[in-house]
Amino acid sequence: MPDTHTAVALPQFNTLTARRYRRWRHFKDDITRHVMAFGGIGVIIAIVLIAFYLLYIVLPMFRPAQIEETASYPLPGDLHAESLFYAMEEQHEIGLRITAKGEAVFFNTRDGLAQKVLPLLSATKATVSAFSAGDPTQRIIALGLTDGTVQVAQHNYSISYPNNVRLITPGIAYPFGETPIQVDAKGKAIQGLGVQADEEQITLVARTEDARLILLNLEKEDSSSEKMTFNWVEREIDLVNSNVTHVVLDIEQRELYVADDSGFISYFDISKKSDPRLIQRVKAVPEDVQITSLEFLSGGISILAGDTRGYITQWFPVRDEENNYTLEHIRSFDAQKAPIVGIAPEYFRKGFIAVDADGNLGVYHATAHRAVKLLHIDNARFKLIAVAPRANAAMIENAGQRIHFWKITNEHPEISWQSIWGSVWYESRAHPEFIWQSSSASSDFEPKFSLTPLAFGTLKASIYAMLFAIPLAIMGAIYTAYFMSVHMRGLVKPTIEIMAALPTVILGFIAGLWFAPYVEHHLAGILLLLVLIPAAILVACWLWRQSPAWMQQKLPEGWEAALLIPVIVFAIACSLWFGQIVESRFFDGNMPLWLGQEFGITYVQRNSLIVGIAIGFAVIPTIFSISEDAIFSVPKHLTTGSLALGATPWQTMMRVVLLTASPGIFSAVMIGLGRAVGETMIVVMATGNTAIMDMSIFQGFRALSANIAVEMPESEVGSTHYRILFLAGLVLFVATFVFNSIAEIVRQRLRTKYSNL
Hints:
This protein is of the alpha+beta class.
C-alpha cells in the first residue's frame, strides 16, 4: 500500500538568512537594553543633580559667620583725649571718632590716618560731660556740656567721582543750629543724655548733676526761613530711683527707657511731650547684678540690656487684650561670661555685636535667638565698638588705646532651626507665632521666614484633596475593574485617564474664578450634596432590586452604573434647589455670614474646600488608573476559586481581590499624594494664599509650591529670601521623592509577587 503521508520541510536554523536575522534581532535587543539603561541612569543623574543644585543654593544660609582682623592702629587724633563714640560710613572706608574734647576726627579705616579734625564746640567754652547718639540711620550725635547745654550735630558723607575714582568727603552739619541748646535752666552739668531727631523735631532727655531728669522737645515751626524757630516743650520727669545709669529714646520719639543702678528699667510714654507718663518699672536683672549697656535694636522697638554677668536680654512692649502695653522679657543671650561693655546694633537687621570686659566679641541675631559667632580677640579690656551700616565691618577700641578693624562676612544670620520651623516671638506681636511674611512697604519691617505655615498649608491641601479623591478614585476603580462590563470599561477607563492630561492651570482657573464664587452663593446646597447623593444612590439601588425580574434581565450585566447617571444629576439639581430654600429660611439667605456670626467661623471665598475639590479632580485619574490596573490584574484563578467555594462576588472582592491588590492601591494613593503635595497652579489660583495655620475647611492657606511660584520672581538673587525659597523647594523635593520611592517599592514588590503566581 503506498505511503500517503506528505513530507513536511523542517525549518533550517543554520542558513545565512536565519543567522543574519538572529544577529539583527540580537543587535536590536542590545540597543534597546542600553537605551533603556541609559534613560534610567539619566533620570537618576538628573534627580541627583537637582538635589545637589538645591543644596548648593541652600547651604550658604547655614555657614557660620567669618570675622577677620584687617588692621590695628593707634587712636587717630589726640591720644590723650577720651573717646566717646565711633561710627563709619556705608563703604566703611572713613571712620569717625568723637572725643571728650569736643572734636570730630575723621580717619581712614585701613591705616588710622586722620583726614579731617573738626571742632564741635566752637560756640561755647563749656566742656563735655555726657554723650549720646541717636538712631544710626539718622547720624545724630549730642554732647552734654557742663553748663547745662547740649550741642547737637550730624556727621555726613558726600560721595563724588573725580577722574572716575570714588571720593568720600566727610563733614559735620548742625541741623538745629550751631549754638548749643539750653536744656537745664539752672545751668547744672549734664551727666546722662538721650537723643533722637528727625527733620522736623528733636527730643533730648538729660540727667543733671543734681539728679534731675529733664525732657526737652524742639519742633521746628518754620523751617523755610533762614532763622529757625522752635515750639519749645520742657518737662521734668519724676523718678523712683534718681541714680540713672542709661537713657535711651526710640526713633519715633514716643518711648523713653531709663535704667538705674538697682537694675530696674522704667518705661515711659512720651508721645505727649508735655505729659510724660510712666507705664511700667521692671526689674531687668537679678539682685547684685547691674545693667552695663542699654541700646535699641534696629527699628527702635526692642531694647537690649547687657549686664555684669555677661548676659544680654531683649525686651519690647507687648499689647494685651485691653490694648495696654507692658514691657516684656522676650529672650536672653548668655554666650559671654564677662560684663558687657558695649553693644552695637546693626543698622537694618535684627542683629547686634557685643563686646565684654575679657576681650570677647559676640555676633548675635535677636529673632533667630542665636550667637552667630563668638571669639576671643584681645586680652585688653574693650571700651567702644562701632559697626558698619552694611554690617560687614566692625571697629573696636581697647584699653590700650588701639583700634582693631575687622571685616565681617555674615550674610544670613536670621536663619536658624528655630526661626524656620519654631514659633518665634516677633516684635509688636502678642506671643510667639509661626509667620511667613517676606516683604513689606515699611522700612522698619523684619522679614519672617517660618516655613511651618507653608508646610502646614501643603499638608492641608493634600489632606483635603485626598479625602475627596481617594473614595471616588478607589471605589470607581473597584467597580470598573471587577463589576463593570468589558465594553463599558473600555469607555470609562480611557475617559478618566484622559482627565490626567487636563492642565492644572485650567482647573485652577475654573476653581478660582467660577467654582469658588458659586460655592459661596450655594454653600448649603453644596453641603447637602454629601447627604442627598449617597441617599439617592441607595434609594435607586433599592428600587432597582424591587423591580420585576424581566426588567432587570433586559439590562446587560455590568451596565447598572449607567442607570445612576440620571439619578446623580437629579440629586445634584435637587440639592442645589433645596439648598437655596434651606439657606433662605434658616440662614438669612447667607450661610457664610451666618457661620461667622453664630460660631465665629470665618468663610473665605477661595478656601480649602475649593482647593481640595480642584486638586482632587487633578489626582483622581492617577489614583484611579493605577488602582484599576492593580485590581484588574488580580489572577482570575483566585477569584474563580473563591466563587467556586461559595463566596459571593462582594465577599470575593473584599476578602480576596482587595487584599491581593492592596499593594497596588497603596502605591496609587502614595503617587496621588505626591502629586497633591507638589501641586502649584491650582493652589495659586484657588486659595487666598494667606500663610495661616487653621484647619478650617472654609479658610485659605499658602502652600510651599505656591509660595515659590509667587515670590521667586521678586526675590533678590543670593538673598536670604531667595535661598529660603530654594529650601522650600528642597523640602518639596524630599517629600515627593519619599512618596514616589515608597510607591515604587510597593509596586515592584507587587510585580515580583504576581510573577510567581
